[in-house]
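Problem 12. The chain below contains 670 residues. Write out its predicted structure in token notation.
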Amino acid sequence: MIVDSDGDATVGVPGLPPLSLDDAYAAAARDVLRGMVASAADPIAGGRHKVFGRADLAVVPTTSTIASHLPRAVGLGLALERLRRSGRRGDGDPAEVAAWPADAVVVCSFGDASVNHATAAAAFNTAGWYDHSGLRIPVLFVCEDNGLGISVRSPHGWVATTLRSRPGIRYFAADGTDVVETYRVAAEAAAWVRRHRRPAVLHLDTVRLMGHAGADAETAYRSPAEIAADVARDPLLATARRLVAAGYASGEELLARYDERGWQLRRIAEEVLDEPKLASPVEVVAELAPRRPARVARMVADSAARAVGPGAGARAEAFGGKPPELTGPLTLAQSINAALADGMLDHPRMAVFGEDVAAKGGVYGVTKGLRDRFGAARVFDTLLDETSILGLGLGAGLAGMLPVPEIQYLAYLHNAEDQLRGEAATMRFFSRGAFRNPMVVRVAGLAYQEGFGGHFHNDNSLAVLRDVPGLVIAVPARPDDAAPMLRTCLAAARADGAVCVFLEPIALYHTRDLYAEGDGEWLAEYAEPAAWADRHVPVGRARVYGIGSADDLTIITFGNGVRMSLRAAATLADEGVGTRVVDLRWLAPLPVADIIREASATGRVLVVDETRRTGGVGEGVLATLVDTGYVGAARRVAALDSFVPLGPAAQQVLVSVEAITQGARTLLAR
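Solution.
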């Protein structure tokens, strides 16, 4: 608040002229009411949802009432502190939210019932874990405790006991119905967090006036006396009594002011009711996941120019004088490792983190050596909790970093999938692009591991990812695709705020051969930076292999299916059948144009899908063929609807080279 030379109180918002208190109140009320009536003029969500948020005030919109936003708050706190200590706060990109102040703290509110939710437990545990480890996270959690979760009561004393017991988190409490006490304790808590750069929780004892939502009739589970007691503790009434007792105003004056505000709100409500609503699919999805392929391609070219220009010396030093393009053919794992290193060199705010990624270098060695090259501040191990790993990524992206979290196995993602679906992927959608969560989530997955696994380490299900609107899903099968696809994902995250899942087939990490042992045909040279622009792989573009005449059959596949399909195609070539093998590479968005072109070229399509028949990728490919008017023959070879068992039994439910070959013969015999 600002008081001018005439003694008039105004409210200042950075970049905007100051407003009187009355004008500021009306503006705030209008924003809230616009959200309630889904007005397209709503300044934060644009009619897509009722969320609270203001980009110019760094109020991040949340759509959840069950604490799924708390892990992001922890991640944002950790990222802000790392940026503060490194002296980097923002990168000058106008798409970034802000260059955060050096003393910035994160404030995150939630309800008492949310204390019991797994995401809240994960956030508190992560904040305490890092504090215990000596890392600083300036986060103030604010618990508004009215004793109810819809109709379920929080046991007396449970919330206070739970919050007090969190190690590494300082506890503050106040009567939330007493405005003066609340302000005093809140200021004390915020100052403590700002000074010590450590997490704290402010526990406010509040009341709930009216039901949880419009359809919630609280008389079904609360007595009239209990409801009346809450009304008597209404902080508005308590404040009015305090003002009257102190002689600042009479009861009549306050009632008149209350009525005046009521009529003001009614007038604003009537105005916003008539405002336009979103009226077309294009308007609704405009901010879902905008794609700017030309800008992404330009970013890749710029990275290449830096790698051979100003950054050539640092690059040579980082690779010990021998960059990867000079080391000979690489495996898939080695290619990803080299591309991560090149990404770290080009993006000073890029960070790689997850379980076992630092000292160990990853379970499969994919991040080996990165910590030694770039330091523990940029390549670090996390605690064993996928929700917290993704929460750190959400917060880091919001702070202006380029996070690359790793989920150790695809099946582990299911523990935390809502951090992608409900939090990361919705950020642009519910803020009209004002906030973004750029990130590239590396996931080791899919099946065909030998001598290790079972369904947790050989998970072949992608259904939970494929239906998340706007999510980019990349699946590199070959080493010479992995590096350019990873560069594309990193550029898309920076250019468009894209949320990318980079799914790495574990069984192909260290594969060297294709047709026969020792042929080395699954290895590939790493492209020198001068060739990056020419070998750029745009999002949603497939790769096609021609075997023989390539005129008889089209096989559409991805991941492990590429290697198996190429081997099957070699067998078919000996039988006089020419095959084109289409590696989708991108499962979201699917390369529709490439699918239709290659399918139409032969009129016979075999979809080879290593995921399950129900909910698998093959369903999407076949639906694409139908939707676009394909009239040729089509058949599918897919894994059974089963978890992947341990040992040789896995071959009974997964796709095999023999099944692909036989499926092709059956299709050709029609």
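Discussion. The chain has three domains: 67-212, 293-531, 543-668. Students who got a different answer should revisit the alignment rule from Section 12.3.
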